[in-house]
Amino acid sequence: MVRIDPIIVQVRRFSRFRPRRLIPQTASRRLRRFYAAARRQWRRSLQFRVVGITLLLSAILVSAFGFTVASLISDGVLNTQEKASKERIQRGAGQAARQLDGYTQADDPGLPGKMRVVATDLSSSMDVPDSEVVLLGHSPSLATASPDTSAANVMQEPSMRELRGLVVGDRPGTYQQIATLDVGAGPTRFLVVGTPIATGGEPLELYYLLPLKAENDLVEFVALVVTATGVALVALLALIAATMTRLVVKPVRVAARTAQRLSAGLLDQRMQVKGEDDLARLAAAFNQMAANLQRQIVRLEEMSRLQRRFTSDVSHELRTPLTTVRMAADLLFASRDDFDPAAARSAELLQAELDRFEDLLTDLLEISRFDAGFAALDAEPTDLAPVVRRVAERLESLAERCGVPLSVETPQDGAIAEVDPRRVERVLRNLLGNAIEHGEGKPVVMTLAIDDAAVAVTVRDHGVGLKTGEEKLVFNRFWRADPSRARQTGGTGLGLSISLEDARLHGGWLEAWGAPGKGAQFRLTLPVRSGDRLVSSPLRLVPDDARADEAALIGETP
Fold this sequence. Notes:
alpha+beta; four-stranded antiparallel β-sheet; 13% strand
């Protein structure tokens, strides 16, 4: 049996070649902007993503459903037409066989005329408009025996040879084929059904050409209805998705805006609570959290304010009695040679502790100024090379007393930057004093370097070093790695904290590196021009010798 192709809606194709138009530059730019805007919206909007995914999935689902429905309807219509056409041609074949029963020879002169009469009778009895009936034989005289010459000629075309071969072949029977034929009214899609007619003489062939215009119209109408329904359904699903998503996304957006305002310091911002659903409970919980945070922040701010005020007041109030005690201690220290050894030693200890107590009060006052936000930067162009050397000279006696070799490396051309020299010198003094105290008698190196954007100073010691995680703790107030360790310099425990605040006031960095048994290195990085933002440092935080040791352990070249 000839394979029957399903009826499909044909799309008109234009055979004329149309030149490809180049997209103008403005249109291409607009497309790129639209794509960038859509991509940005896709990343930022949850509602846009949900609606887009809903559109895509629903379009795929509706397209598959529409294609399935159209195919089933097309196959059903075609199967019905094929079944009816087979019954119709079998009745026609029986009628033709009875009328041609007396003609037993193909060369009978009355056979062609009789075939035309039979074909005309069959054609007049057809209930399908624009259908054609063709009655053919194998002899040349019977090749065009049909009431419609055009239809008979069409059956002689090469496209019909396969069907005719099956009708009168080794297994004769009723066969059908769908083909586009021109029988005088233009190309039309036909269902061609053929069957042999058994006569006493030469076998004849009967063909019905049934137009499929009504079936094509039905399938096209179904396709149009399915397409319109699918588009409407997809649009409705997108609208539903957008509406439902908005109900969920809108409170989330309000919560995000409220959280941003809270983070900006507007602690009185709250969400509006509507209803009693899950979103309402979320808004109520968010408001409760914001209220608790506001109370805690206000409480901490008040405690911090009281603490700063207490520190400042105590520091100021201690100045007066400390001055009196200092005068008495100076008098005792100046007369210590007249005392017995025990009293003279006590006077020396009193003088040293008073010096440390004065330094502690000075540091406390400085810390209170940083906490209150009253610290001011007096930046001016300064050559840091003399500053570094001056700090090293002032601590050289301490280094000799501790047995620590001290060296300084500075650029020959100097290092000029807009800094506050008093604060920078204080930072370097604290860093170098700590390095000497923890140097364990090993060399301490102070290095200065500068580039176009930043100036940096590193202080490297080879002492006890720092454990993992202590790089941040060293800048905490009164923090000590080993509380049982005796101080050599009589520090107050606030030096590195003040140094960190001085670096931040410059817009710079103060960082630490250390490893147990390998020493430590502190790096101060400041911008060359006051107010510039730092992005890099001219000196590495991790020393080169430490990097070489790590590379040697893993078998790599440093």
